[in-house]
């Protein structure tokens, strides 16, 4: 059974430790989420299932990465296994550290948020123009 491949859990951006989705494999023995998706695409679900840890597979499908959905990635920390935070002390410390960093760099933080808001309103504007042009 040890010849099954595990899938790396996409980390929160401030975390430097790596682990497999199931937590049972050494990170260097696990494939990335992108490699997993590629495997399923290339070999199909049935064949890929014969070589992939099912716990890793199900967890990969259940939880988004930070890149695709930061809110979902944080939700995993809260509601992961059994609907309660598994590692709440760690997350609590991390959130306090993030808040302290924001306080120290308030102007940069606000400027970054303004930039994100402008980018998203620019995207919205472009989508609207495309919709009007398509009529
Ligand atoms: Zn696994």
Count of the domains: 2
Uncertain segments of ≥5 residues (pLDDT<50)? Answer: none
Rg calc: 19 Å
Strand portion: under 5%
* Distinct bound molecules: zinc ion
Sheet of most strands: 2 strands, parallel
Structural class: mainly alpha
Fraction of helical residues: 55-70%
Number of helices: 5
Taken in chain order, the helices and strands follow as: EEHHHHH
Strand tally is 2
Summed over residues and divided by their number, the pLDDT gives a mean of: 89
Shape: flat
Strand order of the largest sheet: 1-2
Q: What's the end-to-end separation, in Å? A: 57 Å
Short description:
With 135 residues, the protein is mainly α.
Describe the fold and architecture:
Strands 1-2 form a two-stranded parallel sheet. 12% of the residues are buried. The chain has two domains: 99 residues, no CATH class; 31 residues. The chain is mostly helical and 135 residues long. The chain is flat, with a radius of gyration of 19 Å. Helix content is 61%, strand content 3%. The protein starts with 5 loop residues before the first strand and ends with a helix. The model has no long low-confidence stretch (mean pLDDT 89). The structure holds zinc ion. Zinc ion binds next to helix 2.
């Amino acid at each position: 059974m040890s010849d099954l491949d595990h899938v790396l859990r996409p980390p929160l951006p401030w975390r430097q430790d790596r682990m497999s989705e199931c937590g049972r494999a050494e990170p260097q023995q696990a494939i990335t989420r992108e490699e997993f998706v590629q495997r399923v695409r290339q070999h199909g679900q049935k064949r890929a299932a014969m070589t992939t840890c099912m716990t890793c597979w199900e967890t990969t499908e259940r939880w988004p990465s930070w890149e695709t959905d930061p809110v979902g990635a944080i939700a995993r920390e809260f509601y992961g296994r059994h609907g309660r935070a598994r590692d709440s002390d760690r997350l609590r410390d991390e959130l306090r550290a993030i808040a302290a960093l924001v306080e120290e760099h308030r102007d940069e933080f606000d400027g970054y948020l303004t930039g994100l808001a402008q980018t998203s309103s620019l995207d919205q504007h472009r989508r609207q123009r495309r919709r009007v042009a398509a009529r």
